[in-house]
Specification:
mainly beta; 3 helices; 15 strands; 4% helix
Length: 267
């Protein structure tokens, strides 16, 4: 039997609660009909969220539902791109020996950001290998003798040291790094400034802190404070596009390098 109920109001026959339908029934609100619950309380089951497919990687245009306190709690959405403070722009990761001494992170710098964070942990295949760094532009590494840098260190033995140079063709991060995995190798972070939209801006500027274990046998653990710059303009050197770490001897054993652009840093 089918029928249509027309009524201005439904109320419980007794008490203050009532039930519509039975378990397993489906009620459809057709297209063009508005179900207005703006002045009431609508209780939804937790499965509305937990029953959905999990998304493990967010896109910039993914949206989150919010109650806008500046608009009397009105429902609005905000995009993921507005919530993040940083966005990953580059990555290099491997855990087995590579037949190269270079670790290149390409196309990780652009005009989208002026400030970047680089997190790294690297391990050489050869004990006491020296670790070096260069900036990169569109055609390769910036290898001209224009790097000024200094890294001051303090060791667990209580000694102070430094690596420094002016008008060099590379940046020395450490002259010796252990190849033993549980000693970690070299690890830390760099903050990089690169305003590729400004032709007169420095092509590459960097500060940071990092740790190094120097040898498999009798080595020291050192903490470094670092600053470096490529002493040429964006016009002269070309816009910064990538970063290169490399070992002075032997090949790469492990690398975990992540580059993040700071949202809003170019405005």
């Amino acid at each position: 039997m089918s029928s249509e109920i027309k009524a201005d109001k439904w109320s419980p026959a007794s008490g203050t609660s009532a039930t519509i339908g039975d378990s397993g029934d489906t009620y459809t609100v057709p297209s063009g009909v508005t179900l207005d619950t703006s002045s009431s309380t609508l209780t939804l089951p937790s499965s509305v969220i937990t029953g959905q497919t999990e998304k493990t990687s967010l896109a910039d245009t993914d949206k989150f539902l919010i109650s806008d306190s500046a608009a009397s709690g009105a429902l609005k959405y905000v995009q993921n791109s507005k919530i993040q403070t940083m966005k990953q722009t580059g990555s290099l990761y491997f855990e087995t020996t590579n037949s190269t001494n270079e670790m290149n992170i390409d196309s990780c710098f652009s005009s989208a950001y002026n400030m970047y964070l680089v997190k790294f942990q690297v391990l050489p295949a050869s004990n006491t290998a020296g670790l070096t760094m260069r900036a990169k532009h569109s055609t390769g590494s910036m290898s001209g003798s224009h790097y000024d840098y200094v890294s001051r260190s303090r060791s667990t033995a209580g000694t102070d040291g430094e690596h420094r140079g002016t008008e060099q063709n590379k940046i020395i991060i450490s002259d010796a790094v252990t190849s033993r995995e549980y000693d970690t190798g070299a690890w830390g972070e760099f903050y990089i400034w690169a305003n590729t939209d400004r032709s007169a801006s420095a092509a590459f500027s960097c500060t940071g802190r990092y740790g190094v274990m120097t040898s498999n046998s009798g080595g020291d653990t050192k903490i470094y404070t670092h600053v470096s710059q490529y002493q040429r303009t964006v016009t002269d050197a070309g816009a910064l596009t990538g970063l290169q770490f490399y070992w002075e001897s032997g090949n790469c054993e492990q690398a975990n390098i992540k580059v993040y652009g700071l949202l809003g840093s170019n405005a």
